[in-house]
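Database export, one record per block. Field names are fixed; values are copied verbatim from the stored entry.
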Amino acid sequence: MPLARISIPAHLPAPQARALADAVHRGLVETCRVPPDDRFQLISRFAADMMLWNPSFPDVTRTADACVVEITFLQGRSDEQKRALYRCVVDQAVAAGFAADDIMLTLTENAPIDWSMGRGEAFMGHTHK
């Protein structure tokens, strides 16, 4: 049950924001064996002066459309799966009109005990490896 936080510039239209969210979910389903109905995403919009980053580190060219995708999920994915996830998300985002350099992704892994899906109870479910 990944949680994706998607930070986008305020000027992006809603359909493009949704396309990026769809790209993230599709990448998780196709590369990390996340069930299709296991979708938890938060999209936040930021004014241009609130998205502060180097426009060219490391050897990329970010535009005003640059976005950040932060995914927290259960540990257990291989480096190969993570690389495939990055590629799949960016390929889908490019198909939706983004520049490849404008999509930055970061992953954080944790264990089932680090989640409560509700009721104040620790999640002790199975992992999707």
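Remark 1: Strands lie at 3-9, 41-46, 67-74, 103-110.
Remark 2: The first strand starts at residue 3 and ends at 9.
End of record.
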